[in-house]
Amino acid sequence: MIFRRLWEIWVIYAIVSPMRRDPTEAVRRAVGNLIRELRKERGWNQTQLGAAVGVDQSTVSEWERGAAVPRELRAIADALGVPFDRFRQVIEAAAAAADAVEEAIRSQSLLSKESMEALVVMYRKVLAADTADLGRN
């Protein structure tokens, strides 16, 4: 019974929340997705964005895969013609969503503390595996 309930909760969170294993990972992925989206809207490739910001193509690729958060966010926003505030909003939303998912898991009254922690660990592992798959796309 407990395993069935645990599985049901896990499926709900896996479907509803695309957030990552921790807020830092969530933020990296959200920023990377926004950079990719804005770059493509502008019709640029990674090399062109890198040149506009002063980095090489591989650095832009790292950002877009969520492997790193750029220190050059203001320069990226300027190069892509968007307000810096757009990045701030994405960062805040990603961090809050990741926190909310783990809090929701931990608030399940039907689960023992051990089951809740096991679910959190499982959630983080699945999301970490999803992150590793990004580099293959």
Automatic annotation (TrEMBL):
Domain HTH cro/C1-type residues, every copy: 35-87
PROSITE patterns the UniProt entry points to: HTH_CROC1 (PS50943)
InterPro entries tied to this protein: Cro/C1-type_HTH (IPR001387), Lambda_DNA-bd_dom_sf (IPR010982), TransReg_Diox_bact_type (IPR050807)
Signal peptide from the UniProt entry: none
Domain of life of the native organism: Bacteria
CDD domains: HTH_XRE (cd00093)
Keywords, alphabetical: DNA-binding
UniProt protein name: HTH cro/C1-type domain-containing protein
